[in-house]
Amino acid sequence: MKKEGKKQKKERQKQHAKFRPSKVTISVCMLDTFVLLCLGIIYLNKDFKTFWIPTAMTTMHHQYLAYTLYSESEVHKVMSENYIVENNEQMDFDAIVIGNTAEKSHYSSEYEEQIFTRDEDNDIYKIIRIEEPKFKGYITVIYDPKNVELVVPEKLGKYGQSVVKMCQNNNGLVGINGGGFEDLDGWGNGSTPYGAIIKDGQLIYQHPGGDGGLIGFTKDHKMYLTHDNPQVAIQNGMWDAVEFGPFLIVNGKVSQIYGDGGWGTADRTVIAQRQDGIVLFLVIEGRQPGYSIGASMKDVQNILLRYKAFNAANLDGGASSTMAVNGKLYNRPSAGGEYGGRTVSNAWIVVDNSAKE
């Protein structure tokens, strides 16, 4: 009987050993548990939810990411709590007085000093570095608005071009991307612009898909923001324009932003003008954890208010957010940087028009 007992004991030990999990299996199970715990915490975290859902929903091809973690009703609820009510006042062009922007002896704030203190041997523009806890970027100060021009690719409607290339082709000193374009599967090449493009007082392109407003300038270089159709806008003085949005500041009054505005956190490109005529190009880098996550509409609105923007509008963002300086890519876009930036459908550039006078 003793021999049988020992034999049975060995058999039981042998059977038990067969089902003993390995260290690798235990580690994988612990990792899975940790991931599930993290996802549970993230799922319940309101701040993450209001960051994740609008950020995903305002992309062209990654909206599925919102529904990966949240139900359709939750997505709808968050989006209904995060939105923008634009200030749609008629433009007060008389309030823009293009005048003396020389350096001053006294400044009302550090931001005023940043604007008016010129770089050595450069009276045309100045680039200011923007550094916040969540994001980084640049703001270009253009002292004379007559040096701001809208440019388009050589074969508009067929091929897009990078901001760098459009600057090179048009003697641009600085350039930023403008309106949106058809972006099939996230690989759009800027060949098909969305909405209207007005140049030199003529409607040169119009395509369905533009659901914003017209963002541009009059012939006398005053910023013009309107939701009128292109022909009406031209009749009312629009000279150059692209279609995008939303408008962030009109006549010095802010658009109301609820939550993060429903646009999430991402790379941003914004164009603005002060009452003294100075034009501002703002580009925020984003989608680069550890360097720059990106900015919300409220973030960029706040930056522009510091620099006393009187009118301001959002341009195409995300991977399209590009700044070129002296024929080279200047910022760190979230995609396409190795190619000199994505090809886009139009750009706002800074030129030296003093030679034409």
Notes on the protein architecture:
The radius of gyration is 26 Å and the shape is globular. It contains nine helices and 21 strands. Helix content is 27%, strand content 27%.
Short description:
With 357 residues, this protein is of the alpha+beta class. The chain has helices at 2-18, 23-44, 46-57, 64-69, 72-81, 110-116, 163-169, 230-235, 297-306, and strands at 83-85, 125-131, 136-142, 148-151, 161-162, 174-177, 195-199, 202-207, 213-218, 223-226, 238-244, 247-250, 253-254, 256-258, 268-274, 279-285, 309-315, 323-325, 328-329, 343-344, 347-350.
* Unreliable stretches: none
Task: Summarize the main sheet.
Answer: 7 strands, antiparallel
Give the fraction of residues assigned to helices: 25-40%
Please give the count of helices. Answer: 9
Class derived from helix and strand content: alpha+beta
Radius of gyration: 26 Å
Q: Approximately how much beta-strand content do the residues carry?
A: 25-35%
Q: Overall mean pLDDT score?
A: 87
- Report the end-to-end length measured between terminal Cα atoms: 115 Å
What is the tally of beta strands? 21
The coarse silhouette is globular
Q: Could you state the order of secondary-structure elements as H and E? A: HHHHHEHEEEEHEEEEEHEEEEEEHEEEEE
Strand order in the sheet with the most strands: 2-3-16-15-17-12-13
Domain count? 2
What order do the helices and strands come in, and which of them pair?
Elements: H1 2-18, H2 23-44, H3 46-57, H4 64-69, H5 72-81, E1 83-85, H6 110-116, E2 125-131, E3 136-142, E4 148-151, E5 161-162, H7 163-169, E6 174-177, E7 195-199, E8 202-207, E9 213-218, E10 223-226, H8 230-235, E11 238-244, E12 247-250, E13 253-254, E14 256-258, E15 268-274, E16 279-285, H9 297-306, E17 309-315, E18 323-325, E19 328-329, E20 343-344, E21 347-350
